[in-house]
Amino acid sequence: MINALEQRLSGNRERGVASLVFFVTAGYPTADATVELAQALEEGGADALEIGMPFSDPMADGPMIQKSSAVALANGVNVPWIFEQVARIRNRSPLPIVLMGYVNPVLRYGVGRFFADAADAGVNGVILPEVPLEEWPRFGDHVAAHYLSGILLATPTTPAERVRAIDAASSGFLYAVSSTGVTGGNTDEQALINVAGMRTLVTKNPMLVGFGVSTPAQALAFAKVSDGVIIGSALIRQLENGQKSSEISVWARDFRSGLDARS
Amino acid sequence: MTWRNGVNHEKADVHGFSGIPDARGYYGAYGGRFVPETLISALDELEALYGDARRDPSFAAEYESMLRSFAGRPTPVTYAERLSAHYAKARIFLKREDLCHTGAHKINNTIGQILLAKRSGKSRVIAETGAGQHGVATATVAAKLGMECIVYMGEEDMGRQSLNVHRMEMLGARVVPVTSGTRTLKDATSEALRDWVTNVRDTFYIIGSVVGPHPYPQMVRDFQSVIGRETRAQMDALVGRDPDILVACVGGGSNAIGFFHPFLESSVRMVGVEAAGLGIETGKHAATLTQGTPGVLHGSLSYLLQDAEGQVQLAHSLSAGLDYPGVGPEHSYLKDEGRVHYVSVTDREALQAARLLSRLEGIIPALETAHAVAYLEKLMLTTRPEEVVVVNISGRGDKDITTYARI
């Protein structure tokens, strides 16, 4: 069985369309922002939305997402609340939704229960960046049982054989990290070379590029050597600057137009 | 703990403590590697590098030579005559890690890791520090071997351990203040990991305790085990047998593991003393093993102070070195196995013990160490006069003198 995320991203790849995914921290900048933001991003041309589950100690994130996580936690965000928001988004839209977060809140919630409730709420995929291939099986079995996508990451330091194994263990898409470092960093020519090299190894899944993709021009450059991009810290920065949902739609549309220039 | 799906719950053979961790870095259900993919190849390289070094007699020779000629090992065991007389309930001995160069046990580990860094060809080392003892020990060996050194330290800790900040700077290290989160050891560790994930190709991360992703907990334990090995031989010379009870403080747990490990397969009783801060009942404490639940922080699965939603809770201890909501995975295993007994003492009890040890034995202990000494108050209610107790004096108290002067 193929879920809505897999359908959308694989369909895009077959049609030669670059996929556009946005990341937003749940409950940022305000607790009631997430549902509206999902709609704005969908109108702006998003193929899927990654919702970040905030954690007190985000060791893999740069300053933007660190700050947004702290705000979200202060806004009272927790796992049950995130499931409710997903269900509300799902009530009005088929937009594929992926949850992304640190592993401890998932362990605390209960692994089996987490994936069951996520699927019930309408979640399509899960990314746990602190869970490498070796630790993945105890999560992957639940992911598969609920027809969710389990998205693993490959990075510039991942050896070729391991990229292949990560591709084989992943579903939905493979998350290609463009450069070493935390989220929200800068990218350079080397990042494009890294991604282009990775692409030759990824055969099963669409490969989307994240970390440091912050402008439509960068998005296009990465889309030329992949199947699409993930925009995270750049969106958080817009929200921090107080952009309204209508403005976010217009902002997102620039990325969509940029990517559509690929074909 | 149904969430530990897929993890081997079977208790290890109690005689097999030397066989842990397993190949995946697990101590029973604890440990492992929970880090971003970017770090996996670096951890694989480190594991291979450490494996090669362990099989290479020249590495052991260089490590032991530096321990002897630079760190000042072996450290003595001192009979605490007046402290023993004070309680009249046991013969109390002190393992004197406070006499190590830089003033604490931390240098046993940094010498081992800097030699690995040299072997790896990387020229830049980074470290996190709480009380500053690990930062000073790292800055010291980096200076000795001519490497660039950056130490991450919480702003709160830089204030309360300013002597060590000056020492690190004197040694040529750059101390980076960490202003995120609680501005303590937990946040300094996150920041060091962010540096490592960014600069992984040319940077060697010298972790200061038996925490973090595999192989760090194992490697740090092995380097610190010199404490227990020496103690065992010294007690044999002094009293002709193993001691009855060992006592050590536990933050991340490196001095305690190093002290305990060579005795794990003996019948010696062991006590690990955590920080109860203002008191367990106030919620302001750092008693991870006695009050926490299993979870993942900074790369491994272990006991953790966390709330019902899995967010990490604030630890509290007057002692910067114990002010950490996590603990090494091997301690979690030893707790569940019942091999080590874990207890806690308050800030206040530790301060009293620091004063007592200073007045009776002429040794001003570090505030962390004072927690181990403080537990004697309770332990001495249960011992017999002929029993032999060894307390690991993990560090000296110069860095805490302004805190001591305020009380």
Short note summarizing the structure:
With 263 residues, chain A is of the alpha/beta class. Chain A has helices at residues 4-15, 33-43, 63-74, 79-92, 103-109, 111-121, 137-145, 160-169, 189-199, 216-223, 233-240, 245-260, and strands at 19-25, 48-53, 97-101, 125-127, 149-150, 153-154, 174-177, 207-210, 228-231.
Structure write-up:
The complex is a heterodimer of chains A (263) and B (407). In chain A, 49% of the residues lie in helices and 14% in strands. By secondary structure, chain A is of the alpha/beta class. Chain A has one domain: Aldolase class I (TIM Barrel, Alpha-Beta Barrel), CATH 3.20.20. In chain A, α7 (137-145) links the parallel β4 and β5. In chain A, α2 packs across α4 (79-92). Chain B is of the alpha/beta class. Chain B has helices at 40-55, 57-71, 81-87, 106-120, 133-145, 155-160, 162-170, 185-198, 216-224, 226-239, 254-260, 288-291, 329-337, 347-361, 367-374, 376-379, 401-406, and strands spanning 26-27, 30-31, 77-79, 91-96, 124-129, 148-154, 174-178, 203-205, 245-249, 269-279, 284-286, 293-297, 300-304, 341-346, 388-393. The relative contact order of chain B is 0.16. Mean pLDDT of chain B is 94; it is low at 1-15. The chains are: A alpha/beta (263), B alpha/beta (407). Chains A and B meet through α5, α7 and β6 of A and α1, α8 and β12 of B.
